[in-house]
C-alpha cells in the first residue's frame, strides 16, 4: 500500500478536493481507462512530490495530464512540473480536454500505443507487410 508519509501535511485532503472538483473530461477519461484497461490500477489526482497527477498508473509509470484552456497560460509551470515528474521516473502524456470529449476512441488508441511502447512490444518496420518478391518468382 502506498503511504503518504513523505508528503507534506494536507496532501490527502487536497487530493480529495481535487477529485471532487475534477472536470467532465478528466472523469470521462478515467472511466474509459478503467473500462479499457481493467488489469491496470488508475489513480485520480495522486500526489507526485509537490504536484498532483490528474491520472496516474504506478505499474506503468505513466502520468496522464488532461489539459484545458487554463494550461495555455501556464507553460513555464507545466514545463517545470513535467520535468519534475519525469525525474521521478514517470512518462508524462498530455491530452487536451477537447480530444477527450470529441475523440475518446482516438485518445484510448494513443494511450494503448504508449502502453505497448513501454512494454517493449515490437514495432512495425518500414517495409513490414509489403512483399518485395514477385508473384511466382524470386527476388
Automatic annotation (TrEMBL):
CDD domains: Endonuclease_DUF559 (cd01038). Transmembrane segments: none annotated. SUPFAM superfamilies: Restriction endonuclease-like. It comes from the Bacteria. GO terms for molecular function: endonuclease activity. Residues 14-112 form the DUF559 domain. Residues 1-20, 117-139 are annotated as: Disordered. The keyword Hydrolase applies. InterPro entries: DUF559 (IPR007569), Endonuclease_DUF559_bact (IPR047216), Restrct_endonuc-II-like (IPR011335). Pfam families: DUF559. Residues 117-129 have a biased composition (Basic and acidic residues). Keywords: Endonuclease, Hydrolase, Nuclease. The keyword Nuclease applies. Residues 130-139 have a biased composition (Polar residues). Gene3D superfamilies: VSR Endonuclease (3.40.960.10). This is Endonuclease domain-containing protein. The lineage of its organism: Bacteria, Pseudomonadati, Pseudomonadota, Alphaproteobacteria, Sphingomonadales.
